[in-house]
Write a structure and sequence with these properties.
heterodimer; A: alpha/beta; eight-stranded parallel β-sheet; four-stranded antiparallel β-sheet; 8 helices; 16 strands; 30% helix; globular; B: alpha/beta; seven-stranded mixed β-sheet; six-stranded antiparallel barrel
Chain lengths: 301, 260
């Protein structure tokens, strides 16, 4: 039984990854999960310098999901290289570093500092809804997305995944722009912009007022967008959005994702990534699937 | 450090000990490693409610592997918990956070201060400090529903303040210190932010350390999501900014370390 998948020439032992921002750099969850069992760890977004993030409250629960407005707090690329990469290198898993920035130059500085680092792929975050400058400004207009993808590709030593925002009118237009600019893969979806109001205190639940919605509540939207993108572009798509069990992961594969990321559900069940990797194998045994690639995009018109 | 773990605890008993304040004893192997000031994350049985509810540990019975939690019904999740009866299974993540530093107060007279639903974690602290003659327990309540009073009386000299004056002195915990002319070498505290701010100011004036337990909306509970941060006076070594994670670097901080 073959569970390995390949994205941009990098082979992952299985398609299960962690969604950026929900798993730190793996250290916290390594108390619960054997990181060696995961296809890849996708790190929390890292910028050229340390970012303090947004004021609290930064998280709020919603039905079947949660809102977050962390604001990309991160220690900056220098600390990240010194501390987080060596930690992750102890494990037999692939490392995908999520890169964020306020300007094109910010992104390029991080990308260049990572060029001689032992990381496998870069994921460029142009879709965080919780920071005012940069980030999503590059992810909601096709020409801006094209521009930053092209720039990053020029400077990156590793293959580049563009992480797309669902907060757009036409996801296929964004997917096409990233592919045309040379992206090696796409990941989607980032969180959906939302809001919660506390009716007892009559105030916003989040200090940032709006936040990104994640969790099982968004899964059908994510599956639809992954399907649309996978039907549109030739580059691989990494699917995510509310994955809570192996069946959900398989659903994304069938919709056309080559790999999947587990995000908010880590907070519900800290063992879940490893359980999903095992559960996919059980699914394959149950349905006599010899090679996981048989599942990728198997459901289409 | 003991490994954190998510496991299934079993409810031993449940009792409403004041209006909307419940006491629940849980059978769980997490009891073996619990430290005063640490907390548990309890998950509801409602699939629509994803996130765990962080609740402080009130008392530990290591021999019987039991933990006592005392919590306020604040919403639908805690309302659900309050309906649990003996035998009910509850998914629990624990034991989380750093807990109160016992060593820093060893052999010293300490104010152990709890306000409102911040009162419960003070109990196990008082118990584990051992020295009853060195425990000055100050508990602030809304009214005469002075839950845990009998327990506290066993582990130190207890003073009570109530907002409405229906029990103890009328006022807050800081009023007790002033009115009774009390002194201590250090402070441990858990309670509402205005109380913690007053304690910080008092401790600085007295030149003594105050270990205060903070709270914030949490998601992961294990330090990964960066949801529950507080401002720190100096750059935090993990975040590389002036933010610390309440769930992991705290919930207990020396008051001088945090900007509250």
């Amino acid at each position: 039984m073959k569970t390995n998948v390949t994205i941009a020439g990098v082979t992952f032992k299985n398609p299960v990854m962690t969604a950026s921002g929900t798993f730190g750099s793996g250290m916290e969850y390594s108390e619960f999960v054997d990181l060696n069992k995961l296809g890849a760890v996708v790190t929390k977004g890292v910028a050229n310098v340390a970012w303090p993030g947004n004021p609290t409250p930064r998280v709020a629960e919603t039905h079947g999901g949660m809102l977050n407005a962390i604001g990309l707090q991160n220690p900056g690329i220098d600390v990240f290289i010194k501390r987080d990469i060596p930690f992750l290198r102890q494990f037999d898993t692939k490392i995908i570093v999520n890169v964020c920035g306020k300007t094109v130059e910010d992104y390029l500085e991080v990308v260049e500092k990572l060029s001689d680092q032992p990381v496998d792929l870069l994921e460029i975050n142009v879709s965080c809804p919780n920071v005012k400058e940069g980030a999503i400004a590059f992810g909601q207009k096709a020409d801006a997305l094209y521009g930053i993808t092209e720039q990053v590709k020029k400077h990156a030593a590793q293959p580049v995944i563009m992480k797309l925002s669902p907060n757009v009118t036409d996801i296929t237009e964004m997917a096409r722009a990233a592919e045309a600019a040379g992206a090696d893969a796409l990941s989607m979806i980032n969180t959906i912009t939302g809001m919660k109001i506390d009716v007892h205190k009559r105030c916003f639940a989040l200090a940032n007022r709006t936040g990104g919605l994640s969790g099982p509540a968004i899964k059908p939207v994510a599956v639809r967008m992954v399907y649309q993108a996978a039907q549109t572009v030739k580059i691989p798509v990494i699917g995510m959005g509310g994955i809570a069990c192996a069946e959900d992961a398989v659903e994304f594969l069938l919709a056309g994702a080559t790999a999947v990321s587990v995000g908010a559900m880590n907070f519900v069940n800290p063992y879940i990534t490893e359980e999903i990797a095992e559960g996919i194998e059980n699914y394959m045994r149950q349905y006599h699937v010899e090679d996981i690639r048989e599942l990728i995009g198997a459901v289409h018109e | 450090m003991t490994k954190k773990k998510k496991e299934t605890a079993v409810v031993i008993s449940q009792q409403e000990i004041a209006t909307d304040i419940y006491e629940m004893w849980l059978q769980t192997e997490l009891a073996a490693s619990a430290k005063p000031g640490q907390f548990l994350c309890l998950y509801t049985g409602d699939g629509g409610k994803l996130l765990p509810r962080p609740i402080s540990i009130c008392e530990t019975d290591v021999k019987k592997e039991r933990l006592r939690i005392v919590y306020r019904v604040a919403g639908a999740g805690t309302r659900e918990f309050s309906g649990y009866r003996s035998g009910k299974k509850v998914p629990v993540l624990g034991c989380l956070g750093n807990g109160f530093p016992l060593k820093e107060g060893e052999g010293r007279t300490a104010f152990l201060i709890g306000g409102g639903i911040g009162v419960p974690p003070i109990l196990q602290l008082a118990k584990e400090r051992g020295a009853e003659d060195k425990n000055i327990i100050l508990a602030g309540y809304r009214n005469r529903e002075t839950f845990l009073k009998e327990d506290f009386e066993k582990y130190g000299k207890l003073y009570i303040a109530t907002e409405d004056g229906s029990a103890g002195i009328k006022g807050n915990v800081m009023d007790i210190i002033e009115k009774e002319g009390l002194h201590a070498d250090c402070i441990y505290a858990c309670g509402p932010m205005p109380m913690l701010r007053a304690i910080k100011t008092y401790a600085q004036k007295q030149g003594i350390k105050a270990y205060i337990s903070l709270e914030e909306r949490m998601a992961c509970g294990v330090g990964a999501c960066l949801g529950c941060v507080c401002k720190t006076t100096e750059k935090n070594s993990h975040s590389n900014v002036n933010n610390a994670r309440i769930c992991t670097d705290g919930p207990v901080f020396e008051a001088g370390e945090v900007d509250i």
